[in-house]
Records
---
Amino acid sequence: MSKAWTFGENMNTDEIIPGRHNITTDPVELAKKVFCEVKPEFAESVRAGDVVVGGRNFGCGSSREHAPIAIKGSQVQCVIAASFARIFFRNAINIGLPILECPEAAADIREGDDVEVDLSSGAIFNRSTGNRFQAQALPDFVLKIAEVGGIVQFLKTHDIEELTA
Amino acid sequence: MGTLVEEIFSRRAGRQVRAGEILLLDVDYIMSHDNTTPLAIKAFRAIGKPIRDKSKIVLHLDHAYPAPNILAAENHKKIIEFVKEQELPYLFQQGVCHQVMIEEGFITPGAIVIGADSHSNTYGALGAFGAGLGSTEVGVAWVTGKCWFKVPETIRIELRGQTQPGVYAKDVMIHIAGLLGMDGATYRSVEFGGEYIDNLPMHERIIFPNMSTEIGAKCGLIAADAETLRYLAEETPAQGTFETLTPINPRYERVVEIDVSNLSPQVACHPDVDNVKNLEEVAGLEVHEVYIGTCTNARYEDLEVVANMLKGKKVNPLTRVIVTPASARILKKAMQTGIIEILMDAGCTVTGTGCGACIGRHGGILAPGERALTTMNRNFVGRMGSPLSEIYLASPATAAATALTGRISDPREVAELAGG
Ligand code: SF4
């Protein structure tokens, strides 16, 4: 099962990973401290494939990529939120952390719910409540980046112009 | 035709663009600092292609500078080695990145500048598009010279009237943050205008785009005008004639009208920037540190306001009062004009330049249970140190009044206010 870990509104980058732990960019190291103040049990108990669920304005605050890297390092399959702060949104796309914007799903899902996600279509199924949701589809060029796992990967084999082609 | 951001993007794209379009545009400068450059270098190496145009890259050491620990020192070393290896022309160690970008003339009307720092919005004060991005995108832009943008919808903030003595642009912006909320402008361009903005000098204008970040904005813009051109000519080495773009028949998503005439000094209270109160409601609250610094409010004129209020007086002996000028140029001028001496005689601790205590690395870290009143732009829990500390945001004048008493105090009750 994919367990949901829920977080509140305006979850800022300092709450995702406090600035004092940003002394490394190693996903595995950062993942040890992810959410350490707001949900201390998360880093120890999260399992690969789980889902992080946030409220409005998830990832607000600093432009640091440590926040999405730390979440990606915890091996969750995606973040679902009512909305994302814009730099976090860009950063997540650029580093290849799947994100789905869906206020209805974010409101429905409770801590510990079993959630099934189809990343390619944006379909979200909360097995615990039986409710199904459709996340906002991501624009084409975002999918191009996500498909190859991030913009760095994309540029290794493509020209930047191909993004908007 | 369009909002200011549509005008700026249209000029660069060479055709009329509209909100909602996704564009790939050439950028003029790519800014990053000691906190974000190491990851950009990592992305750059992973891409494995050469830098497109070295003269677009501007690097700063400011966030933990001079290095307070070995890890910060390693970051600085890594960056300097990279500058040598790539023969990059611009590395600054002269203060907070955004202030130095403006002072050094990199920011001009109509320019498109991206930065690996969330307060890169600051550049909008000069009619430039400035936006914060992550380090990876900076590495990408080094290689491509370009960046993708979704043209944002615009919220227009129309400011009328004049503030009372003791009330400053910072108070007005904190008030706006309270009205719109922390995500009130997410993904949006926020255009600030109206007679109040028209009459403001550049050092006060800068606060609005700077703190547009706090309400989630992609960019904060003020159309360039005569004051912008005066500032560029008198206070920066920027040369040339600049086209001052303005909105033309704009379609705004929302217009917010505010009359600033009767506004009290404002305080953004722990724990959120939109937890805004009139100063009267929080006056008397004990503070343990007053911190005057950052890209928001540590310019020369801010220090001047503080010095005029502290001249011949002593700050509360049990309160730490720390002043971190935003740049070396500001510090030098404040030394030459005697402002630093006034601050030191009053009992302030004046530090070197840079981000200082703003991100809780050094220069004024808070202990559990402590409360700071500061001229910063954000008050995230734990930003200045212990997660059990509290941060209150206000103007330099409110900070000076508070420094005298050790309790949140009203600048209007302290004589010799400067400016207005
Ligand atoms: S002074 Fe503070 S807000 Fe400004 S760039 Fe530095 S850390 Fe960021």
Note: The interface with chain B takes residues 10, 12, 14-15, 18-20, 22-23, 25, 37, 56-57, 60-65, 83, 85-87, 90-91, 94-95, 139, 141, 150-152, 155-156, 160-161, 163-164 of chain A (CB under 8 Å).
---
Amino acid sequence: MTESPLLLQELLRKTAGGDATAFALLYKHTAGKLFGVAIRIAGRGEIAEDALQECFIAVWQRAADYDPIRGAAMSWLIAILRNCIIDRLRRRGVRPEGHAAPEEALRRLAAPDSAEHGAELRALRACLDELEEQPRRAVLLAYLYGLTREELATQLAVPLGTVKSWIRRSLGRLRRCLES
Amino acid sequence: MKYDNPELREQLAAEYVLGTMPPLVRRRFERLLAADPALRRVVEDWTTRFGSIDRATEIEEPPARIWRSVERHLALPRTAARPRWFGSLGFWRGATLAAAAVAAVAIVYIAVRAPPTPTTVVAVLSDDKGDPGWIAQSRAGGDEIAIAPIRSVAVDAAHAFELWAIAGGAPRPLGILPPAPDHPLMVQASALPPDGVLAISVEPAGGSPTGLPTGPVLYKGKMLPRQP
């Protein structure tokens, strides 16, 4: 599946001008991908659905903030969705566990929607592979499923301070690896 | 200020994108972001770094009620007003015959995707519930308009979708539409009424025998104003 980046950009631009038809079309083209991400992070249920709704309300209201120079429309939409989900999860408090092992989830990801994103995903996987097992798992659990530091400490059975320093060091290493 | 250390900025941006900041720190960081474009770029870099995971995550069809609540919440105007003659011909009842069994696929190709030239949407044709079904686009520098369904649409072998231009007088036939997104109908831009309406009806295979719509009109949309 693919979505045309230029089409999304155009639809966002029209949405910013108050064009409800363009907005409806933007929803048609992106809601499935965004809902997939929402379900991966929050599981099926109210949080994922409410976050998707809130996300599109924010998109309508903030479409004018999108600047095509700074990145793909899809990335902008995903960032808004993730923020809605994370905020909702934090308000909800502690969650039950029960998601797939993160390494397995990373392996099972669908084929990316373009050659460019395929290359990005390969590079990210390669750099994640260079991290040690437990710190890598902490980073993946946080990104894939939205776990808090506290939830990570519980799940990985280490002190909170250890989780914090794993994450800090891992993100630094990831950045150096991806920039090299 | 204490947020001018590049290492600290990187670290905060990364943790913001990862989602592991405690809520209060997160709020504070967002206030900082609002006033600091350079910091927003650091966040965007991290969004891109991790974004390939989200882009490769499986698509899930959201329940229809989500869009309905978005629409209600924002009090969105209904798109494209219905021209009077549609209603008068009683097109909207029993319109289910051959039409519009939409594939249950969530997200879709848009027709014009082969050459990566910029395209402009010139009309969106929606059904009677306001759901967009077909899109007409022009390519930069081209004088043809491509019209294709947003998703594949089902029509039996005895019927076809026919496109009409309406501007004032009687509807003018523009051609038979292929039901799949990747083979758009190409129409000369000059054949489209600048301020008119495009409509799609269900006709016998091969097109309307009378030169006027004979079957139910399932989609219609106003031509959008030209971009300056």
Note: The longest strand of chain B covers residues 119-126.
